[in-house]
Amino acid sequence: MSCTGAQIEKDIAETFDLEAIIDEFKYFKGRRAELYFFIQILLRDKSVMAVSFDLQTFILRARVLKLYRQALRVTKRAPAHSKGELMQTIRNEMEKNRDCKDKQKIRYFISEGMERLKGLDEMLDMQGH
Which domain of life is it from (predicted)? Predict the structure, then answer.
């Protein structure tokens, strides 16, 4: 049985903010039908993926990766003598918490990471980098 995009949107909207999900998956930009199909597969049969995630876990994973990419982008603006150390610190922090399965703790780590990244970004701005 095939679900329509509207039905999938309704099902997801009962639990999640659809616009937030779409923002998390920017690589689906302009391909909303593909996003609906992808989410439909996740909702119908979670075993389709090589590693089975529920939708919340999948979204958290996307947010962690987004934070990591943002951190690396900010690090590129750092002075050359500290760039390598910053990148290594970011990688170490990610690796240290890689096996965390507690969703509440992951949300905390994301929030903490965003705050630390914001502070680093502001410090680099103040230094003119």
Answer: Eukaryota
pLDDT, one tens digit per residue, over 71-96 is 999 999 999 899 999 999 999 999 99
Cβ-based burial of 76 (10 A; exposed 0-12, middle 13-18, buried ≥19): exposed
Joined tokens for residue 79: 């002075």
Tokens, residue 123: 């410090």
**Residue 117 CA to chain centroid, in angstroms?**
15
Length of the chain: 129
* Domain spans of the chain, in order of start: 5-48, 55-126
Phi, then psi, of 30 in degrees rounded to 5: 80, 0
